[in-house]
Specification:
The structure is a single chain. The chain has one domain: Phosphatidylinositol (PI) phosphodiesterase (TIM Barrel, Alpha-Beta Barrel), CATH 3.20.20.190. The chain has 9 helices and 9 strands. The radius of gyration is 18 Å and the shape is globular. The longest helix is centred in the C-terminal third of the chain and has 23 residues. It starts with a strand and ends with a helix. Helix 5 links the parallel strand 5 and strand 6. With about 260 residues, it is α/β, with parallel strands linked by helices. One of its GO terms (biological process) is lipid metabolic process. This is Glycerophosphoryl diester phosphodiesterase. InterPro entries: GP_PDE_dom, PLC-like_Pdiesterase_TIM-brl. Pfam families: GDPD (PF03009).
């Protein structure tokens, strides 16, 4: 039986400020198999972990990520409307995250946020840092910018990449291969059983986002979807455990 992996969307973002070290640590402590996060470049070309191109939604500052140096970004507190801990949260650098995650067995899905702002050198900078920390086997790079993924495939074909997409693609496994990708990170309604079955035959991993409702989690876990990306790590883990327990009981009953 293929067990569905649980990826924490921007960390344990249902309870902690998204894309912060607090959210990443909480996801790990809860038992997540992987973490999904977003990377952009600062004015001084430091890779930082933040989803939006601007900082106002997730911090108490205003402006574009690209217009601040890393030290300037650290002046703003992150997650001011959702702090579940006494310690203040700040926008982390990718370096800070790697220093922590290298001591775990977590898989990290890095979304390159270069669909709106084409950060020059984002691919090279990210790949260099992955190599420095020797994390090649624990990284998946994804993006809505599929030109970026094709570039990564040429720079380092050993790094797994995944296309991000919102709507139904015809034979998405064939399209993914045109940019050297081995993963399909689709909006969760796209992940229907026929797609999952054929993708498995094509040896292409489907990891839908953002799967937060119980019924969707149950459906995808029962289909043995390779992974789901969710805000609700605890909820997803609980549903997976119940599915595992039910499967074990069914096998025992078959033998008796």
């Amino acid at each position: 039986m293929n067990r569905t992996m649980i990826f924490a969307h921007r960390g344990f973002s249902a309870r902690y400020p998204e894309n912060t070290m607090a959210a990443f640590r909480a996801a790990y402590d809860c038992g997540a198999d992987g973490i999904e996060l977003d990377v952009q470049l600062t004015k001084d070309r430091i890779p930082v972990i933040i989803h939006d191109e601007t900082i106002e939604r997730t911090t108490n500052g205003i402006g574009f990520v690209k217009d601040f140096t890393f030290n300037e970004l650290r002046n703003w507190e992150a997650g001011t409307t959702k702090n579940n801990q006494e310690q203040k949260c700040f926008i982390p650098s990718l370096d800070e995250y790697f220093q922590w995650v290298k001591h775990t067995n977590l898989i990290t899905n890095i979304e390159l946020k270069n669909g709106v702002i084409p950060y020059e050198g984002l691919e090279e900078t990210t790949l260099e840092m992955i190599a420095t920390y020797e994390l090649e086997d624990q990284i998946i790079l994804s993006s809505f910018n599929h030109y970026s993924l094709a570039k990564i495939a040429k720079l380092n074909p050993n790094i797994e990449t995944a296309i991000l997409f919102m709507e139904g693609l015809y034979k998405p496994w064939d399209y993914a291969r045109t940019v050297g990708a081995r993963g399909l990170h689709c909006f969760y309604p796209v992940a229907q059983k026929p797609i999952l079955v054929q993708a498995a035959k094509e040896q292409i991993a489907v990891r839908p986002f953002t799967v937060n409702e119980d019924e969707d989690l149950k459906r995808l876990i029962s289909y043995q979807c390779p992974a789901v990306i969710t805000d609700h790590v605890d909820q997803a883990l609980s549903i997976r455990q119940k599915y595992d327990d039910h499967s074990k009981m069914s096998k025992i009953e078959e033998r008796t």
